[in-house]
Amino acid sequence: MRSGVLEMMSSSSGILSSSSAAAIVALNLKEAKNWWSDVNESPVWQDRIFHILAVLYGIVSVIVVPSRFQLVRIQLRVPEYGWTTQKVFHFLNFLVNGVRALVFVFRRDAQNMQPEVWCLHCVIVI
């Protein structure tokens, strides 16, 4: 829509002055900011974005599942070493990505939690 206005202005006045071209660019930037504000304030968009992130972290966690089998295989082959750095790394990759996926799925519930620690902190501060 803005390009149509730009074409109309350039055809009617011949060549746009640099100040009016700058004003049009600034207006386009302002509209981009308004678009982001609309997306940022929309619960529907937020829910969709967080669900997409949950799915992506879930996929990463599922891809890391074979590394859990790798943990078992390493443990069966060399049980005397215990928990090596490699085993801890594979386990934590699976655990962290799985927890991230769950956090994004239950984001609304997590935001509405009011733990007692915060209430005690408020009482101590007061």
Overall description:
The protein has 126 residues and is an all-alpha fold. The chain folds into two domains: 2-41; 43-125. It is built from seven helices and no strands. It has helices at residues 2-13, 18-41, 43-63, 65-77, 85-105, 107-111, 116-125. Helix 3 (43-63) runs antiparallel to helix 5 (85-105) and helix 4 (65-77) packs antiparallel against helix 5. The protein is elongated and about 75 Å long. It starts with a helix and ends with a helix.
List strands and helices in order, with pairings:
Elements: H1 2-13, H2 18-41, H3 43-63, H4 65-77, H5 85-105, H6 107-111, H7 116-125
Helix pairs in contact: 3-5, 4-5
Helix content: over 70%
Q: Biggest sheet, open or closed, and with what strands and sense?
A: none
What class do helices, strands and sheet pairing give?
A: mainly alpha
Mean pLDDT score: 74
Inertia-based shape = elongated
- Contiguous runs where pLDDT drops below 50 for at least 5 residues: 4-12
Query: What is the end-to-end distance?
Result: 55 Å
Number of strands: 0
Q: How many domains make up the coordinates? A: 2
Helix/strand order, N-terminal first: HHHHHHH
Radius of gyration: 27 Å
Question: Helical stretch count?
Answer: 7
Proportion of β residues?
under 5%
Main location: membrane
Pfam families: THH1_TOM1-3_dom
Protein name: Protein TOM THREE HOMOLOG 1-like
Subcellular location: Vacuole membrane
